[in-house]
Amino acid sequence: MALIDPVMLKTRLGALAGRFDVDALDECDSTNSELMRRAERGAPSGTVIVADRQRAGRGRRGRSWLSSPETSLTFSLFWRFPGNASRLSGLSLAVGVALARALNGLGGAGIRLKWPNDVLLARQGEFAKLAGILIELASDRRGTQAIVGIGLNLAAPAEDLPQPAAGLAEAGVVADRHQVLAAILAELAGVHEVFAARGFAALREDWQRFHAWHGLSVQILGEGAAVQGVCLGVDDDGSLLLDTAQGVERIFSGDVSLRRSGNGAAEGEP
Ligand code: ATP
Ligand code: BTN
Questions:
Q1: How far is Cα 73 from Cα 84, in angstroms, rounded to an integer?
Q2: Three-class secondary structure of residue 7 per DSSP
Q3: Could you tell me what percentage of the chain is helix, strand and coil, using 3-state DSSP and rounding each to the nearest 5?
Q4: Where do the H-state alpha helices sit in the chain?
Q5: Of 11, 213, 222, 245, whose CA is between 20 and 30 Å from 43?
Q6: What range defines the domain where residue 235 resides?
């Protein structure tokens, strides 16, 4: 039997239970891939796949997401949005707001967001990755289908990773996995509604409130030369604002990596 019991989850979801259709699996390749296949076969908006183990969990740009059943929560939510995919450019930031609100609401201390798709934990002297978001879109004549994939570490992964990683327990959260998943799904339902009606602009202030690197020196690594600047947060459309020697630049593409470049003391530094 899978670690998530859909009946117990429904109890935790209370009045929101009817909005979700949850299937808990022992194993699959990737919850995003499995859910995409089910969406193609007509699964309704609100379908959730949660898996104890992923054989091929994915991050952005073909990277792997590592997880083990006891120490993580890996799931995907299918949601239909009106309009075409170009209206969803800020969705991974909106999902970040839902995650941050949920984890903060469960008593998590030091929950922060990193553009465009990471949840970090601010802890002694560093920021460590707590969760990642992978959104995959497909459009049809009824609108855009979003597969919202979330990998959350309940405890820090045992593997050596290129960037520091952390688990929810380190943030002081003692809730069990059913409470954690229910809290995230509840926030996602609310955030998706606001996003569909008013776009990311309506969630921007909250994103800024959780922003990890506000006012800190960062660099953007992409195909060309690195761009250096001071991170000013995000704009209404979800683009990153960077104060560079040439003035304020907007970074639209999530196909780049954001890294800290200095250690200048600033507000928000752990
Ligand atoms: P960026 O998005 O800025 O390039 P990133 O390192 O966060 O930086 P992503 O593609 O967003 O890159 O996330 C995938 C990365 O997450 C992988 O490179 C891997 O090192 C890391 N990773 C994989 N599994 C975990 C995990 N369980 N916890 C934390 N990090 C992980
Ligand atoms: C990232 O940080 O790059 C995103 C990681 C997203 C991982 C989750 S785990 C559940 C879902 N299924 C996947 O294969 N990926 C996402």
A1: 30
A2: helix
A3: 30, 35, 35
A4: 6-13, 31-40, 91-105, 177-198, 204-210
A5: 11
A6: 217-258
Domain containing 80 — which CATH number?
3.30.930.10
> pLDDT: is 64 or 139 the higher one?
64
Helix, strand, or coil here: 4?
coil
pLDDT at 62: 86
pTM: 0.95
175 and 159 part of one domain: yes
254 pLDDT tier (thresholds 50, 70, 90): low
Q: Are residues 72 and 160 in the same domain?
A: yes
- pLDDT of 146 reads 98
Token code pair at residue 151: 């990998």
20 domain residue, yes or no: yes
Pairwise CA distance, residues 70 & 18, whole Å? 27
What's the rounded Cα separation, in Å, for the pair 241 and 250? Answer: 5
Q: Report the domain count for the chain.
A: 2
172 sits in the region (left: phi over 0; alpha: psi -120 to 50; else beta) called: left
Closest residue by Cα to atom 15, ligand 2, is 58
Q: How close is the Cα of 239 to the center of ligand 2, in Å?
A: 21
Q: CATH no. for residue 249?
A: 2.30.30.100
Q: Which ligand does the CA of 136 lie closest to?
A: 2
pLDDT at 124 over 90: no
With contact defined as beta carbons under 8 Å apart, do 152 and 72 qualify?
yes
Ligand 2 pocket mutation, candidates 25, 66, 74, 148, criterion most atoms within 8 A of CB: 74
Spell out which residues line ligand 2, taking CB within 6 angstroms.
30-32, 54, 57-60, 63, 65, 74-76, 117-118, 132-134, 149-151
The answer on 225 and 178 residing in a single domain is no
Q: Which amino acid residue places its CA nearest to atom 8 of ligand 1?
A: 257
